């Protein structure tokens, strides 16, 4: 999603199927997304967890390898059978991954 202006986001683009692996290493304060381009994020600040009627949201302020600040938010959609999503908010765009947990 592209930012419309400084206060509003535009519409989401058409979703594209993809498979990625997301590695969470809280002991080393890092999150790595293994996609077409590997994305490394260093956790700068844990923002805690917010509970709403529909969602449980856990957010982090991170920096990527270029030093750009990015907010990462994990959403659990209670109204969608606990569907889990990861949102990455950059300054002028955002994107989202639907998550399926693999516990092998």
Automatic annotation (TrEMBL):
It comes from the Bacteria. This is Uncharacterized protein. It comes from Flavobacterium chuncheonense. The lineage of its organism: Bacteria, Pseudomonadati, Bacteroidota, Flavobacteriia, Flavobacteriales.
């Amino acid at each position: 999603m592209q930012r419309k202006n400084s206060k509003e986001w535009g519409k989401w683009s058409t979703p594209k199927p993809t498979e990625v692996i997301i590695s969470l290493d809280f002991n080393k304060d890092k999150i790595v997304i293994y996609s077409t381009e590997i994305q490394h994020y260093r956790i700068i600040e844990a923002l805690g967890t917010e509970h709403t009627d529909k969602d449980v949201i856990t957010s982090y302020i991170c920096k990527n390898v270029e030093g750009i600040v990015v907010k990462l938010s994990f959403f659990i959609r209670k109204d969608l059978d606990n569907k889990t999503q990861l949102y990455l908010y950059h300054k002028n765009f955002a994107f989202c991954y639907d998550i399926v947990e693999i516990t092998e």
